[in-house]
Write a structure and sequence with these properties.
Keywords: DNA-binding, Repressor, Transcription, Transcription regulation
Protein name: TetR/AcrR family transcriptional regulator
Order of helices and strands: HHHHHHHHHH
Strand content: under 5%
Distance between the termini: 66 Å
Number of helices: 10
CATH architecture of the largest domain: Orthogonal Bundle
Number of domains: 2
Organism: Streptomyces similanensis
Radius of gyration: 19 Å
Pfam family, one: TetR_C_6
Structural class: mainly alpha
């Protein structure tokens, strides 16, 4: 029994490791995160963590993918409910924009983007897959709203690309704590843009 307990402590559930990594990256940034510190937080040796992840960059990507899988499930729930397209678009925007300075999910994205220039093709492909899911869901929602007459006739794919660029820009400002841009201000700008360009 003691051996079984030790085995469980040396290999905690994957979600526990990724949740701890997300919290530590948000608090310290990836550069200050050490495998030893993460290991202490989850009761695992740094050697075990390196065995499972290989590098801090891989740990970062897996943590982002885990975080995104949770957000993706929430996004799917919001977008498939029985509600007008405009209401579901507001929910999408609300989910997209960070809660505030050092939002953990957005801190992960900032770290990933910071490493994108030197990333290998596999890492860039995985990042593109995550961003592609957000884009496809948004484009489909815009197309649905147009087809139902709720939105002005726009090219859904092009509009989604532009809206996501706007969301990314404001979200980065919110996440890094840029003075004069908080979450409510960002949401206000996006609502104004949608009123002027999309809503009937």
């Amino acid at each position: 029994m003691a051996d079984g307990v030790r085995a469980r402590r040396s290999a905690p559930p994957r979600e526990e490791v990724l949740a701890a990594a997300m919290e530590m990256i948000a608090e310290r940034g990836l550069e200050k995160l050490t495998m030893a510190a993460l290991g202490r937080a989850v009761g695992m040796s740094s050697g075990h963590l390196l065995y499972y992840f290989g590098s801090k960059d891989e740990l970062l990507l897996r943590t982002l993918e885990w975080s995104e899988s949770r957000l993706g499930a929430e996004r799917g729930r919001l977008l498939t409910r029985a509600a007008p397209a405009r209401e579901r678009l507001a929910a999408y925007v609300d989910l997209y924009v960070p809660d505030g300075h050092r939002d953990p999910h957005w801190t992960l994205w900032l770290e990933v983007w910071n490493r994108s220039l030197g990333a290998v093709a596999d890492a860039r492909d995985r990042q593109a897959a995550i961003e592609g899911a957000w884009h496809r869901d948004l484009a489909a929602l815009v197309a649905e709203g147009v087809s139902r007459g709720e939105f002005r006739p726009v090219d859904a794919d092009r509009f989604a690309a532009r809206l996501r660029a706007l969301l990314d820009g404001f979200s980065i400002h919110v996440a890094i704590g840029l003075r004069g841009t908080d979450r409510e201000q960002a949401l206000g700008h996006v609502r104004e843009f949608l009123t002027e360009s999309l809503y009937r």
